[in-house]
């Protein structure tokens, strides 16, 4: 059975790196746990780090966090669905919001539950996902400012997740100006200016973020050490907190070109044979016990640099091991690094075992 392994020591190393980085700059931060897909042993490892604030986009995952450690501040990081209001108030201390009617429903439900529910007002700044338009912000803020059982904990923005708009210094300065505008208009003080996700870390490392931006939500950098500006790794961090291990279930020398009438495969792809293709070529192929039901091969990178992914079907992954110096045999495990989306697929699969090392 294929399994994904979390290295607790590398996770601890990355957490310490980020915590030191943020503390030295007087920045508050929370860990985005959604890649863990509610896996209880992995969430326990996260809690054991000393995390004070956990963000997720699934209420069921926040429920698990609250069950394991009620004192952790939980943050629901997308605009609430109105049918989920009761559970959001119950399990999320904070939620990200963009709709007045939804906030009014949160206010009413928080009253019923005898709670104060905190909200972050998300502002649209070019990535075209969630967010109140800038020209509507003052009116929006004034409408919700005095709702009972609601505390506006701050403002925030989301960049890069949909359209790829990067959180440049200019973007974060603009977010800071929204803070000044609101504070001046309503004579209030805004606690959080949440400047985004892991993609903003390069700005922080360069000391290029405006001082008013004092909060970030970090997931990908913690688990994968990615510098999303350069595509490289953040120096001093570990990139392989997660590893996928899949077992070899067949090794056979096979032709590189299929024979017979060709149609679409299960993924909707058709193999194309060029006129000048050498039909006599073959390769040593290994089949692994993981497939498209569990992962997407484009997000996997074999640790062995001399093997390549050929393709995958629903339950099997085919590798070309012709040029490997390893003497693979049936029953061996082949390990892979993963990109963020690769881990998300695998951790969401009920057919992949999850282990801690």
UniProtKB/TrEMBL annotation:
GO terms for cellular component: cytosol. One of its GO terms (molecular function) is alanine racemase activity. Residues 7-226 form the Alanine racemase N-terminal domain. Keywords: Isomerase, Pyridoxal phosphate. It comes from the Bacteria. InterPro entries: Ala_racemase, Ala_racemase_N, PLP-binding_barrel. Its cofactor is pyridoxal 5'-phosphate. Signal peptide: none annotated. This is Amino-acid racemase. It comes from Flavobacterium kingsejongi.
């Amino acid at each position: 059975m294929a399994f994904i392994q979390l290295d607790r020591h590398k996770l601890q190393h990355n957490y310490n790196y980020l915590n030191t980085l943020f503390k030295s700059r007087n920045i508050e931060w929370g860990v985005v746990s959604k890649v863990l897909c509610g896996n209880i042993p992995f969430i326990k490892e996260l809690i054991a780090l000393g995390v004070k604030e956990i963000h997720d986009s699934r209420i069921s995952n926040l429920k698990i966090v609250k069950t394991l450690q009620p004192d952790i501040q939980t943050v629901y990081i997308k605009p609430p669905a109105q049918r989920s209001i009761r559970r959001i108030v119950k399990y999320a201390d904070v939620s990200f919001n963009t709709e007045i009617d939804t906030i009014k429903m949160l206010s009413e439900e928080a009253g019923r539950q005898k709670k104060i529910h905190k909200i972050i007002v998300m502002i649209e700044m070019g990535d075209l996902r969630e967010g109140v338009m800038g020209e509507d912000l003052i009116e929006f803020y004034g409408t919700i400012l005095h709702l009972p059982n609601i505390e506006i904990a701050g403002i925030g923005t989301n960049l890069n997740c949909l359209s790829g708009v990067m959180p440049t210094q200019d973007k974060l300065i603009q977010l800071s100006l929204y803070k000044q505008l609101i504070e001046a208009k309503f004579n209030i003080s805004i606690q959080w200016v949440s400047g985004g996700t892991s993609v903003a870390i390069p700005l922080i490392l360069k000391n290029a973020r405006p001082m008013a931006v004092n909060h970030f939500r970090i997931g990908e950098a913690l688990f994968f050490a990615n510098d999303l500006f350069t595509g490289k790794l953040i120096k001093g961090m570990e990139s392989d907190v997660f590893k996928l291990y899949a077992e070899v279930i067949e090794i056979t020398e096979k032709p590189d070109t299929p024979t017979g009438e060709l149609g679409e495969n299960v993924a909707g792809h058709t193999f194309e044979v060029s006129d000048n293709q050498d039909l006599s070529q073959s390769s040593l192929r290994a089949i692994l016990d993981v497939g498209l039901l569990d992962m997407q091969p484009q997000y996997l990178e074999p640790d062995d640099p001399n093997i390549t992914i050929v393709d995958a079907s629903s339950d099997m992954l085919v590798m070309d091991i012709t040029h490997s110096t390893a003497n693979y045999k049936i029953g061996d495990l082949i390990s892979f690094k993963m990109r963020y989306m690769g881990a998300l697929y695998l951790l969401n699969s009920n057919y992949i075992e999850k282990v801690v090392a």
